[in-house]
Write a structure and sequence with these properties.
The protein has 129 residues and is of the alpha+beta class. The chain has helices spanning 3-14, 67-74, 81-92, 104-113, and strands spanning 20-25, 31-36, 40-45, 54-56. A hairpin with an 8-residue loop joins strand 3 and strand 4. It is globular. The relative contact order is 0.12.
C-alpha cells in the first residue's frame, strides 16, 4: 500500500479515539508516530514489500503495554494498519484511563445469549406451569 494511503487511514483512525498522528515520515523508514494524553506514545513502522508492521515506543512506561500488539502482529496472517492500530489502542486502554474491554466477538455472542427466553424456551431451574 502506498504510504500516503497509510497516512490517510491513520488519520481516519485517530478521529475515533484519543490518539493524534503527530508525525509521518517516508524518507528513511515508513514511520507513523502517535500521541495521546497523558503521555502515551508509540510508533508504527509500516512494511514495504513482504515485511510486517512493527510497533514500538520510546517511553519505558508504554513498552510493556505493547506486548499484546507485538504478539498479534507476529501471529499468523498478514495484518492491516487498522487492525494493528486497534490492537494497540486496546493494549493502551488502562494507560488512557479507559475501562478494559473484552474481545468484541465474545461480547456480541454474550449479548445475544442474554435475551429473554422465547415462549418455547424453558428457563433453567424454573418450571413453567
Amino acid at each position: 500500500m502506498e504510504f500516503k494511503h497509510l497516512v490517510e487511514a491513520a488519520e481516519k483512525w485517530c478521529s475515533g479515539n484519543p490518539f493524534d498522528l503527530i508525525f509521518a515520515e517516508e524518507d528513511d523508514e515508513r514511520r507513523l508516530d502517535f500521541y495521546a494524553e497523558p503521555g502515551v506514545s508509540f510508533y508504527v513502522l509500516c512494511p514495504s514489500g513482504t515485511d510486517s508492521f512493527h510497533v514500538w515506543s520510546e517511553s519505558e512506561d508504554c513498552l510493556p503495554f505493547l506486548q499484546l500488539a507485538q504478539d498479534y502482529i507476529s501471529s499468523c496472517g498478514k495484518k492491516t494498519l487498522l487492525e494493528v492500530l486497534e490492537k494497540v489502542f486496546t493494549s493502551f486502554r488502562p494507560l488512557l484511563g479507559l475501562p478494559d474491554i473484552e474481545d468484541d466477538s465474545f461480547e456480541h455472542y454474550h449479548t445475544d445469549m442474554e435475551g429473554e427466553p422465547g415462549p418455547d424456551q424453558q428457563q433453567m431451574g424454573v418450571s413453567q406451569q
